[in-house]
Amino acid sequence: MEGTLHIDEDRPLNSSVQATIQTASVDTGNQMRDDDLRSENFLAAGEFPTITFASKRVEKVNDERWRVYGDLTIRDVTKEVALDTEVEGRAPGFDGKERLGFTAETVINRKEFGLNYNAVLETGGMVVGDRVKITLHIEAIRQ
């Protein structure tokens, strides 16, 4: 994953973020599941090598919480999402550069992004639910 944050400390609502995730980098700790997630069944990493996010606006919820709205693109399908973002802390790293830690979360319907694969279990349920919670733990380094 790589990204660029522009944080306007004087006017935080003018802040922005752009991020790119390589779909081939999916790593759940289970090789068979990772291969399936990278396959045509889900992310189709060969055809769609990246997932991107580009912010459009930022809203302040309180001193520690923000809502970042932007375009999420998966499999060449773009939808606006809201990332509920919480500042976790700010401190210098071992290299002396200032670091900012935060967590961001959203929920998407995977089918809205063309992730339609599913299979029926013997018990009648489905293998994969439609609702996907995305949680990001991010450390930004001031440049």
Count of domains: 1
> CA-to-CA gap between the ends?
17 Å
What level of helicity do the residues show? under 10%
Kindly state the mean pLDDT as a whole number?
Answer: 92
Task: Please explain how this structure is put together.
The chain is mainly beta. It has a single domain, classed as Lipid/polyisoprenoid-binding, YceI-like (Lipocalin), CATH 2.40.128.110. A seven-stranded antiparallel beta sheet has the order 1-2-3-4-5-6-7, with no helix packed on it. A hairpin with a 2-residue loop joins strand 4 and strand 5. The model has no long low-confidence stretch (mean pLDDT 92).
In short:
This protein has one helix at residues 31-38, and strands spanning 2-6, 16-22, 50-60, 65-74, 77-92, 98-109, 131-141. By secondary structure, it is mainly beta. The protein has a seven-stranded antiparallel beta sheet, with no helix packed on it.
Keywords, please?
single chain, 143 residues, mainly beta, Lipocalin, seven-stranded antiparallel β-sheet, 1 helix, 7 strands, 50% strand
Topology at a glance:
Elements: E1 2-6, E2 16-22, H1 31-38, E3 50-60, E4 65-74, E5 77-92, E6 98-109, E7 131-141
Antiparallel strand pairs: 1-2, 2-3, 3-4, 4-5, 5-6, 6-7
